[in-house]
Amino acid sequence: MAREQSLKILKEKKEKIVRDWADAMQASSPRYADMPKEELEADASAYVDGVIKALETRDYSELFELLGRVARSRSRMGFKFSEVERALMRGTEILFDELYGMRGGGAGRETFEAIKKFLSVTDMAYLSLGDSFIDIMEKEHSAATITTLGAVQEELNDKEIGKRSLESVCKILGFDFGALVLRYQPGAAAEYPPGFKADAAFFVTVAGEVFDSGKIVSRDTELKGTNGIVAPAMSPQKLRSVAGIPIRARGKIVGALVLASPVHRILTQHEKDFSTAIANQIGMYYENARILKEARHRADYFKSGYDELMTILSQIGAAVYVADMTTYEIIATNKIVEDMFGRDLVGKRCYERLQKDQTGPCSFCTNRFLVKDGVSTGPYTWKVRNTFTGQWFLCTDKAIEWTDGRLVRLEVAFDISEMENARSNLEEARQLVELYNDLLVHDIHNYVGVARTYLEFIANEPAPSEKHDEMVRTVIGQLDRISGLVDNVSKMSKAHASGQTLMDDRDLAAVLDEAVHEVRTAHGLGHVEIRTDYKRGVHFVKLGEFGKDIFLNLLTNAAKYGGGKPMDVTISEGDLDGKPAWKASVIDEGRGIPPEKRNQVFRRFERLDSLSKIKGLGLGLTLVRSLTEIYGGEVLVENRVEGDYTKGTKFSIVFPKVKKTA
């Protein structure tokens, strides 16, 4: 009787329902407001026709097909999920409010509310969760995902969700009793109606038949549980109809929806299809809920262990961060990393925030060593100097599985700057010891050997006075060389020992003038013309005690090996590591140095083939580079004439600028 009355109301009020719904849709969003009202009324009319047919024949297919067509149409028009959902919900409310208003209030209100809620979920089964929902209509888990996320939002537990779903199914299909049985959970996960005592064994038995057959179990015979079913204010009664519907999720049966009635009741094919779809939605909900619960538990467990690990590593001085191996985005850091690079690192790319002037992945990135064929390999340990802080780190990298299942790079790094500096200082000291040993053993031995030979000859062999005087001068020259060598070694030793601690602001022009004066007045060098081009009181740099010796060696070298031709001394603007500097140059017109051999002139005991006939101490340019680097400068070797090294050489010393001191 209720069904016939509802059909009569829907047919009589169809035009009003359609008109009200079209108005509600146009008022719900700007996109709907721009649509022709006739088109909206056509959709609403088709929806009401689908409801009428469902009531008349219990065939829901036409209604579902309509919803699918509407969803696809709205998707192509760029509608958002929230807009379509709101329009469908509003139409459902209008339709059932009209039914309720015509039939009057009373106990039926609860039924109408339940049906409205259930239909709203069914409608959403054909929509998406995001801004665009095309290609989503065929996804079995859409409604279940919505239900799951909604339950999480409302903080509903599994039992409450199961109870709500079961209640809706029983009311729509006309069953008085029901139970939701999960395969690996004892008893019933939910029961209907609320408050009745169900014979759990009966429902579990029917569910077992469903599990065994994998099909819908439907019987219309006199049935009775082991203890019967007792409902409130009802005497024990016999069941005459039962239906068991498999609950599937991701291809496997996870439970059964068991429905029972004291009256004869056979499910039509449409009702079987409908109940199967709903059962699968319930199954997907429980499966999604299980996955979410496991993920939450895993995340909590991981976070607890992660926080503990981060704290321990911070306490022992390790810098730790985690980054995505594909996007290079930083996922997590510990306090030490935050203190070095900032606290807003998460979500930023590691190469942009943890390194200096990087616009793409670092060339030394270890990702390629951490994964093979999609599987994490063993830890990879390496050493690197950070381009942002200048610190040396000993790093151990490992690809690990993150909470969401992806492989990420975990890096644990220890600051080894002090160790590296000590190693560098030790290596430098070792090289100095070797150098000093070479000087004493090689050079001084040679000089002493020559002097001894001449002295023995003078003592044992008579010779003309002219020859005797020449030999004495040779011996004195060798002794001068020994003295100069010892003086240079002493200067290098002192400079290395003091480093940059004893440096003062010096006028570079004044230092050059002193060096130029000594060369001009030196024995055997005064004939070489030295032209200067700079002014005093302008070019200030920081120099140590032996700053003058740098330029004195350059000038002496140019005077000796420049073929007696003039040389130029200039000061110009320079650049050192991106900072302004002064560039002091000594330019000769000698035979020049081939570009591929320029570094060799600074090495101890190196002799260039083209200069093999030129004699010298072999330490002057070594002293130049050593002192320059100790004082924070740089040595450059260039052609005097660009592109032609045979026209002479330009030696330049570059020091950072400093402001003039008072």
Q: On the 0-100 scale, what is the average pLDDT?
A: 75
**Class by alpha and beta content:** alpha+beta
Backbone shape: elongated
* Oligomeric description of these chains: single chain
Helix content: 40-55%
Q: At CATH's second level, what is the architecture of the largest domain?
A: 2-Layer Sandwich
What is the CATH class designation of the largest domain?
A: Alpha Beta
Distance between the termini: 110 Å
Q: Strand sequence of the main sheet, in spatial order?
A: 2-1-5-4-3
Features of the shown structure:
662 residues, alpha+beta, Globin-like, Beta-Lactamase, 4 domains, five-stranded antiparallel sheet, 19 strands, 50% helix
Sequence-ordered SSE layout with sheet pairings:
Elements: H1 2-12, H2 14-28, H3 30-34, H4 37-57, H5 61-76, H6 81-103, H7 108-124, H8 142-154, H9 158-173, E1 177-182, E2 190-192, H10 200-213, E3 217-219, E4 241-249, E5 252-261, H11 269-315, E6 318-324, E7 330-333, H12 335-341, H13 350-353, H14 367-370, E8 371-372, E9 375-376, E10 380-385, E11 392-401, E12 407-415, H15 417-460, H16 465-498, E13 504-507, H17 508-521, E14 530-533, E15 540-543, H18 547-561, E16 567-576, E17 579-587, H19 620-630, E18 634-641, E19 644-656
